[in-house]
Amino acid sequence: MKKSVNILPQARRIIISGGGTGGHIFPAIAIANALKENDANVKILFIGAAGRMEMEKIPAAGYRIIGLPVRGFNRKNPLKNIAVVYKLIVSLFIVRKIIKLFRPDVVVGVGGYVSAPALWTASRMRIPVVIQEQNSYAGIANKLLSRKADKICVAYEGMERFFPKEKIVFTGNPVRIELAECHLLREQGINFFELDANKRTILVMGGSLGARSINQSVEAYLERLPDNIQLLWQTGNNYFEHAKMLLDRHKTPNVKIFAFINRIDLAYSAADLVVSRAGAGAISELSIAAKPCILTPSPNVAEDHQTKNAMVLVEKNAAIMVSDSDAHKKLMSKAIETVQNKQTLDTLAKEIKNLAKHHAAESIAAEIFYLLNKPSCLKNSAV
Predict the structure, then answer these.
(1) 201 Cβ partners below 8 Å, 6+ apart?
(2) Could you tell me how far CA 210 lies from the centroid of its own chain?
(3) 3-state class of 55 per DSSP?
(4) What gap in Å lies between CA 311 and CA 156, rounded to an integer?
(5) pLDDT tens, position by position, for the chain (383 residues)?
(6) Looking at the domain that runs over 13-173+359-378, which CATH code has it been given?
(7) 31 within 8 A of 13, measured Cβ to Cβ
């Protein structure tokens, strides 16, 4: 009598595409980690934009990534979009080849212009697609791609005005794992950054690349910073050398500068107030950390979605907003006024904490595994 042979399915394969900024990269890594936690054998491949920071951050997190030549459209100089269109077409051919070789069971898009070629090609090749829409206002690409998507994971209510209601799942936005598991005391952050525990601390962040208006606002205030206030200043790579030169010139002991803060959990624990852009990832982190914040939305994003993100919080008394155009004159003065008002800080912290959505990465991973376990997907991946 012949023994029966159990034919097991191959390891599930998932492509995650997106990047350009930390706001897309860190959630992508969080989702990948959650997938691995659920199934250690799952195979994950990232697709990013060649030359952007994901090409460094993703391998550092232990994952393989392939870069595409794709670039975002230039809204200020349309003539430059001739090259952009060419790179998009080349990227579509590259993605098709990647999909044929890697044979993913699901393709996940986490945002950024690089995710569009991967999601569009996957949908054309009848591979299940998951969109992770981070913002409160969906971009054109995701609205168009949603017609072919199987699941759309969102972080804000009311997204049925952009997407088919039956495809929407309210998951929240994933945050960096060190923040998701953060249970640190203020003292730990103060000691790590060698700050003065008797002074109020403002954490200033302009994103991983830096924000000109926020940095210029700090620069204008360096000589007027009150003695009882200290700054943790993440300048971004583009502004670090200039900021370092300024501090050397002004001899300002109350300011610590960094191109990029790796221990963001400790930075949040040290901060009494955070000044930040209003990207969806930043807002999710601030909500999880329950940090009072002043948001200065970037004007250089599609459909002004950062202002829309910020207004969701402002309307619930969970944040203060200073426009980018007003930042140079008003941002730091407003930050100094706010950080010295305990009642305001307590109110902001309480209201933003109410907006936090925990375990977002795990919720998104669960939706991906739901698709993986559908009969059609199991049949496609069988040996």
Answers:
(1) 190, 195, 229, 230, 231, 232, 270, 271, 272, 273, 339
(2) 14
(3) helix
(4) 12
(5) 444 444 445 789 999 998 877 778 989 999 999 999 999 999 999 999 998 889 999 999 999 999 999 877 666 667 677 888 899 999 999 999 999 999 999 999 998 888 999 999 999 999 999 999 999 888 888 898 999 999 999 999 899 999 999 999 999 999 887 776 666 789 999 999 999 999 999 999 976 666 889 999 999 998 889 999 999 999 988 889 998 998 888 778 899 999 999 898 999 999 999 999 998 889 999 999 999 999 999 988 777 889 999 999 999 999 999 999 999 999 999 999 999 999 999 999 999 999 999 899 999 999 999 999 876 665 555 43
(6) 3.40.50.2000
(7) no
pTM of the model: 0.84
Q: What fold is seen in the domain 179-353?
A: Rossmann fold (3.40.50)
CB 269 within 8 A of CB 294: no
Residue 275 DSSP code: E
Exposed / middle / buried, residue 212 (Cβ in 10 Å: 0-12, 13-18, 19+): middle
| 13-173+359-378 shares its CATH topology with 179-353 | yes
Strand order in the sheet with 168-170: 64-68, 43-49, 13-17, 106-109, 129-133, 151-154, 168-170
Q: What is the largest CA-CA distance in the chain?
A: 89
Contacts of 158 (CB under 8 A, 6+ apart): 136
- Map out the domains of the chain as residue ranges: 13-173+359-378, 179-353
